[in-house]
Amino acid sequence: MRIKRTFPYLLSAVLIILILLYPVQALQGAKNGLSAFAQSVLPALFPFFVATSLFTKLGAATVLSKRLQPLMRPLFGLPGQSALPVFLSVVSGYPNGARATASLFEAKQLTLLQARRTMAFASTVGPSFVFSIIAASMLGQPRLAWLLFLPHLLAAFLTGQIARLCLPNDKKRMQQPAPLKSIAPVPFNRCFIAAVQESVTALLSVGGFIVFFFTLSNLLLAIGLLPLLAKLLWPFFLLVGYPTQLALPFLRGLFEMTDGCLSLCATGYPALSLLPLLCALISFGGLCIQAQQALFLSPCGVRFSESLFFKTVHGVLAFALCSVCVHAFPAASVTSVAAAPVFSFGQRLLLSTGTLGIAALFLALLCCAMSLYTLAFKKRKKKACG
Fold first, then answer.
1. I want to staple 86 with a disulfide (CB 3.0 to 4.6 A). Which of 65, 122, 178, 210 is the partner?
2. Angle at 26 between CA 24 and CA 30, to 5 degrees
3. Euclidean distance between CA atoms 118 and 125, whole angstroms
């Protein structure tokens, strides 16, 4: 218990010391984070934040929920209200799904269990980031965007099915749908002003997380800890046929997604071969995205460890599905800085099967860990109640 209490203080002290010892690297990391936020994140997210707030405040969420109720319940065991976070997440990306889920939970339109299940898969990257920033800008090949986005979405929906199996089922709550409350008409100008104010506040928090994680990544790189941790990923990279040089940029993406995607694309490795790694990164989201989602979900009681688990599952599934798509794609038609490796059909089939096997094994281990964690949590809860 003493270690638990003192660890945050030690971590804060170490971070302060690192900033004082490496001020240039810290400043450069903060500048890079601020630049990424101002040039990419802010223009992409702000209009969607305002639009989603208006959508909810004007009562359109209730209409959408009623229409999609027959689809959500048989597929995911969720009420129609859950369709709103899923829809907003697919259209506008992180962290709109978390924000919408939190809003519905606070309005008592979703129970805690429904919010937990919804957040397992209402957490996707926006199409604007994939099509405009990664495919067109970073890779320089816009037509590869579909090979990234479709496996990413399919993996998200599969994660939703896994959440339905993993999370404990409260039959009483699930048999009675959360009430669809009609919202009293509110003047548009009041809704619009409130939506803009809330969106600015939320985006400032998002920007703060991005700047912090860019700085943290630079500091860990400066002290040599990041390259050391990257060596732990070498066996995995060798197992799936990637050079170990890609481990460090990939690890940077586990901290901050945009930073990792930029670093991977800057390696000069064939664009087609990078797609599974990029798909894994945008699906996991990085610790920066996890922190942004926790900002909205912590009042709902959704545990950070649970969110991290399902994002890891999402990342593994996305890597496997994207690998299958890439190995079935004619590599010769893709231009890149380096020559893309050409495989026969048999080799592509073998690589795809091997990747799926590794992913299945890893997912099985993750599900076992989640089951043990759930059992342990239930026992602790019973002891506390007793």
1. 122
2. 115
3. 15
